[in-house]
Amino acid sequence: MRLSRVLNSDGLLLFRSRFKSPAFPSRSLLRSLIRMASTKVNKTAHPFTRAALEDLLNRRFFYAPAFEIYGGVAGLYDYGPPGSSLQANILAEWRKHFIIEESMLEVDTTIMTPSPVFETSGHVARFADWMVKDTKTGDVLRADHLVEGVLEARLRGDKEARGLAEVEKAEDDKDKKKKKKKVSSTAVKLEDSAVAEYENILAKIDNYTGPELGELIKTHNIVNPDSGNEVDEPVQFNLMFDSSIGPTGKVKGYLRPETAQGHFVNFSRLLAFNNGQVPFASAQIGRSFRNEISPRSGLLRVREFTMAEIEHYVDPLNKKHQRFDEVRDVKLRFLPKDVQSAGSTEITEMTIGEAVEKKIVDNETLGYFLARISLFLEKIGIDPNRLRFRQHMANEMAHYAADCWDAEIQSSYGWIECVGCADRSAYDLTVHSNATSKPLVVRETLPEPIVTEKETPEFNAKLWGKTFMKNAQMLREVVTQMDEEKLTKLKEDLVKGPVTISDSDGNKYEVTSELLKIEKKTFKQSGAYNWSRTSEDDTYYSDFAQ
């Protein structure tokens, strides 16, 4: 290869490469490269040092802090040539493993999202973490990470004080005949009861509410480890980046914190593209943004990242998966919620078939995707002995979810969540359908008609309009939106005399039996039925975040 240098119009030095045949590898060199590629790498030949690895990745520009010459911004990173290639290879393998092999429908939806979408989904109100602030420096820390980090440090110090860490080091270095390292001067031996209590807290760290984290901070005298100062009470901080759309600034928007909503709002189009057939899955690879409270740990907690996400839609009356038998014998390492609640982190290994039969995993479709996730992670090089599937505990799980698992990888930072897989029910489709009055539903032909009876309001249209005038339509909607229980109660009250009905603003209106009658009617549905607005449709959600 010959390099020639040229100057561009701005006078910057550029290099232009021209390949010549002699520059290609010789046969002997190719044979050497093949021998090297076939040689098994001993990954334990040298002790792992995170600082050395990070230094190497930085020097070879796998990644580096973004805007570094301006001082950088926490949680933002740029990928260099090798990092970009590695990311591209992983995403290409993900696309092959899931989208192509599973015949999924790939989409690419917008990053900027109007506020009403996230108001409906609940992100504006609930997409938040608990944070605490240093009372003197003003530094902000994520509450659960603070508790976790401090207690883990105390447990490490206890092990050093008991000589456990030193023994382990001595065993590692025995063959090399190196001297033992001195025990850290900060090592402090804890009471056995304190060790047990700390381990119990750490096993349930993801299940604590904000006030409970605040109580733990007080009870165990946890302070900011960087300054030694006390921290204030935990408060919630919404993780979405907000913005405005258009020049007026009146249309509020957000950078998406996940790609899922783009799937849901396009559900009807995706269903039509799939000829109305269910089950089917949509998939998307794209950028997401989260305004992390205290981004740390390199690339593990950043403010801009790439996600690969799947939404799989299935009939709620049949949660079996036609390919489940292909993965039935795949062994996974589980950490169920009841084990965590008991203060333990003991892992149970079993096949996914056994886990589904024992109802540890809720159903076949969820189990199928857990197994497929495990196979993918092993395919790209994750050590299966450092991989576990942790079930969400009660406080973590959304009220509408049937089951949820995180694939966690054990790293030098501890156990880190890298994939979430959840049975979300029809929550997302239902709330978007209700907010927009657009039917995000699946319709299927019925073998036999469905006959139902329900209380139905009948209005005296002429008298109703004359009585309530401009409020007539609004009050009509108040009544028609009542559920079966409220309509039954209203029917009973109307028999006794006039009834007072309130609107959303608290204004009261008197209704009589002359204006409104409620009668039980029979309805027969014979052509088709839908199963998404009634919260019966199940969505299986998986996301892979860098």
Task: Describe this entry's structure for a reader.
This protein is α+β, with helices and mostly antiparallel strands and 546 residues long. The protein is 35% helix and 26% strand. The chain contains 19 helices and 25 strands. A 9-stranded mixed sheet has the order 5-12-13-25-18-17-16-14-15. The protein has a 3-stranded antiparallel sheet with strand order 6-11-10. A hairpin with a 5-residue loop joins strand 10 (242-245) and strand 11. Mean pLDDT is 84; it is low at 1-23, 166-185 and 532-538.
**Overall 3D form:** globular
Q: Count every beta strand, where a strand is a DSSP E run of 2 or more residues.
A: 25
Helix content: 25-40%
Q: Note the beta-strand portion.
A: 25-35%
The overall pLDDT average reads: 84
The assigned structural class equals alpha+beta
Contiguous helical run count: 19
Major sheet: order of its strands?
5-12-13-25-18-17-16-14-15
- Termini Cα gap: 36 Å
User: Low-confidence parts lasting 5 or more residues at pLDDT below 50?
Assistant: 1-23, 166-185, 532-538
How is the main sheet built? Answer: 9 strands, mixed
Radius of gyration from the CA trace?
30 Å
Oligomeric composition of the shown chains:
single chain
Layout of secondary structure:
Elements: E1 2-7, E2 13-18, H1 27-38, H2 50-59, E3 63-65, E4 77-79, H3 81-100, E5 105-106, E6 112-114, H4 115-121, H5 123-126, E7 128-133, E8 140-142, H6 143-162, H7 164-173, H8 192-203, H9 210-219, E9 235-238, E10 242-245, E11 251-255, H10 260-265, H11 267-273, E12 280-289, E13 304-314, H12 324-327, E14 331-335, H13 337-341, E15 348-351, H14 352-357, H15 364-379, E16 387-391, E17 403-411, E18 414-423, H16 427-436, E19 443-445, E20 450-459, H17 461-468, H18 472-480, H19 484-496, E21 499-502, E22 508-511, E23 516-525, E24 528-530, E25 538-545
Parallel strand pairs: 5-12, 14-16
Antiparallel strand pairs: 1-2, 3-4, 6-11, 7-8, 7-9, 10-11, 12-13, 13-25, 14-15, 16-17, 17-18, 18-25, 19-24, 20-23, 21-22
Helix pairs in contact: 6-8
